[in-house]
Design brief:
- The structure is a single chain.
- A six-stranded antiparallel sheet has the order 3-2-1-6-5-4, sandwiched between helices.
- Helix content is 38%, strand content 28%.
- Helix 1 (3-17) runs parallel beside helix 4.
- It is α+β, with helices and mostly antiparallel strands.
- The chain contains four helices and six strands, in the order H-H-E-E-E-H-E-E-E-H.
- InterPro entries: FRMsr_CS, GAF, GAF-like_dom_sf, Phosphatase_reg/MetRdx.
């Protein structure tokens, strides 16, 4: 994907979510928008922080892990480190949690309210090294727009 592609997608995110204050509705539509526009994915969705663990939220894809401990797997590591995780080959990631054995690469971006992590956006692909720096920057911008639409 190109930076221009992500700029266009970001405008769509803002148009879709402007004025929406229900978090579940916004996350569901955000997941659907990414699933419809990004290629070579097999799962996209959210895990939300509840009682010191990540709990499955709105998503597009196959059945998923319901709960992930903080610090475990790619998603739990993203929360623990409070930073995006871009993994070229999840099978090389120590502690990877295989919710879908078809997933090979993963991009996980923390989702925040007032600077505090409240969950993660998790995007999985069946292809090795699917996500590059442009994808990471583009998706981080999309998540920032989602946060701005929901939390001002």
């Amino acid at each position: 994907m190109t930076a221009s592609f992500y700029d266009t997608l970001n405008r769509q995110v803002i148009a879709l979510l402007s004025g929406e204050d229900d978090q579940i509705a916004a996350l569901a539509n955000f997941s659907a928008l990414l699933n419809d526009n990004l290629t070579d994915l097999n799962w996209v969705g959210f895990y939300l922080l509840k009682n010191e663990q990540l709990v499955l939220g709105p998503f597009q894809g196959k059945v998923a892990c319901t709960r992930i401990p903080i610090g475990k797997g790619v998603c739990g590591t993203a929360v623990e480190k409070n930073e995006t995780q871009r993994i070229a080959d999840v099978h090389q990631f120590v502690g990877h949690i295989a919710c879908d054995s078809a997933s090979v690469s993963e991009l996980v971006v923390p989702f925040r309210r007032n600077g505090d992590v409240i969950g993660v956006l998790d995007i999985d692909s069946p292809s090795l090294s699917r996500f590059d720096e442009i994808d990471q920057q583009g998706v981080e911008t999309l998540v920032k727009s989602l946060e701005n639409c929901l939390f001002g």
